[in-house]
Amino acid sequence: MANIKVIYGSTTGSTESAAQKIADALGADCVNVASAKADDFNAPVLILGTSTWGVGDLQDDWQTGIDLLHKTDLSNTTVALFGLGDQDSFADSYLDGMGTLYEEVAPRAAKIVGKTSADGYRHSASRAVVDGVFCGLALDDVNESEKTDARIVEWVKQISEEMA
Questions:
Q1: Which domain range does residue 147 map to?
Q2: Nearest-angstrom CA–CA distance, 66 and 37
Q3: How many structural domains comprise the chain?
Q4: What's the mean pLDDT when you consider all of the chain?
Q5: SS3 labels along the chain
Q6: Residue 108 in this model has a pLDDT that exceeds 80
Q7: What is the pLDDT of residue 101?
């Protein structure tokens, strides 16, 4: 595959674990946004991941990452997104962090890949739902951890086909 960077923000380790599984499956570099440099965002393919905190907040380490993202020319970049959240306790803001990342990159990226169906999830609202589908891979390691690995495998296959 092309030069792919998986850049993630993780507080409890769940997003880091998902990021590493995605990176391993794609043979990609995996970078914690907390230690990311501007050059980490200069790749033909970026896979960006975050958890959602509080009531719809982006994971804390992304505050600096967003600044780096703003300075990056994404006009020739393919972007895929993944997010983790708790659809039961935070049903009205499920994956809002991923939605925030989408809003940052969508107007500037050459191509967005990896949108997934919102069917089968129990949320009531989400900034990550765009035109009736999630803007990326939706994971809930709190309530559906048994589905995480299979969802990652399917999504990696999907984005690989969309990028081909």
A1: 4-163
A2: 12
A3: 1
A4: 95
A5: CCCEEEEECCCCCHHHHHHHHHHHHHCCEEEEHHHCCHHHHCCCEEEEEEEEECCCEECCCHHHHHHHHHCCCCCCCEEEEEEECCCCCCCCCCCHHHHHHHHHHCCCCCEEECCEECCCCCCCCCCCEECCEECCEEECCCCCHHHHHHHHHHHHHHHHHHHC
A6: yes
A7: 96
At 85 the pLDDT is 95
Burial of 27 (0-12, 13-18, 19+ CB in 10 A): exposed
Q: Is 0.70 surpassed by the pTM of this model?
A: yes
* CATH at 131: 3.40.50.360
